[in-house]
Specification:
Elements lengths: L6 E8 L5 E13 L2 E10 L1 H15 L9 H10 L8 E9 L1 H8 L1 H16 L7 E4 L4 E6 L4 H20 L7 E9 L6 H18 L1 H21 L1
Antiparallel strand pairs: 1-2, 2-3, 4-6, 4-7, 5-6
Helix pairs in contact: 3-4, 3-7
Length: 230
């Protein structure tokens, strides 16, 4: 290291009380009063690192739900294309009635509905699975190293959780259409598998359309009562 060319490095240090903090260390060769010395300057950068972590979190997550966002989901789709984590399951869910809630109660109520749906979804999957909100009323999940049986079981858990939630008679019931597909090997495209899951979701939505209409008819009355109470 030449004189006048400081070397910068970051590290984590420990305080006397055992707490950790981030520092930036600048090391430089200098000459002072004819003597060669090593100058070390240490700066506490804990707040900067916390801000960087927070910005990184915001860049990867959806604000209303706290789930991963579409950008992160698509990055993971690309990463999982290699085949290293095959089989990879994909689950696509569409939240029914979001527009109805937004139109009748406002977007704050819609955001609450999204957050509740997200909470119910997360409980159905492993910590290693990528649960994301990828559109206005659409959620998707990536399940690395996961067999078809496990993916189907996860979808059934979603349906069971939703049914159990509706039995509690919440102010705003939640209904979702669910589809799934599995990428078995590296020759399959993640995007084609996603499309297969999306098609299954849409087929379920069409199949259960009459049930949804009945639920929505009751939901309108409940929304009016809920709006009057609040």
């Amino acid at each position: 290291m030449q004189e006048g060319e400081p070397r910068l490095m970051e590290m984590v240090l420990c305080r006397c009380d055992g707490t950790l903090f981030d520092v930036e260390m600048s090391i430089n060769n200098i000459t002072l009063q004819g003597r060669k010395m090593v100058q070390v300057i240490v700066r506490d950068i804990t707040e900067r690192k916390q801000m960087e972590d927070w910005l990184r979190y915001l860049n990867m997550h959806d604000k209303p739900t706290g789930l991963y966002n579409r950008d992160y989901f698509e990055e993971e789709m690309i990463r999982l294309q290699s085949g290293r984590f095959d089989p990879v399951g994909i689950v696509v869910c569409d939240l029914d009635g979001l527009k109805l809630v937004n139109d009748n109660l406002g977007h704050a109520a819609g955001d609450h509905l999204l957050a509740t749906a997200a909470h119910l979804l997360v409980k159905c999957f492993r910590e290693s699975d990528v649960v994301a909100r990828i559109g206005g009323d659409e959620f998707a999940v990536l399940l690395p190293t996961c067999s078809q049986e496990v993916v189907e079981s996860a979808c059934q858990r979603i349906r069971d959780n939703l049914q159990q939630y509706r039995k509690s008679e919440p102010p705003i019931p939640i209904s979702m259409s669910v589809g799934w597909a599995v990428k078995a090997n590296a020759n399959q495209s993640m995007w084609e598998v996603f499309k297969e899951a999306d098609n299954r979701m849409y087929a379920e939505k069409v199949k259960n359309r009459e049930d949804f209409k009945k639920l929505f008819a009751g939901m309108v009355d409940e929304l009016r009562d809920f709006d009057q109470r609040t």
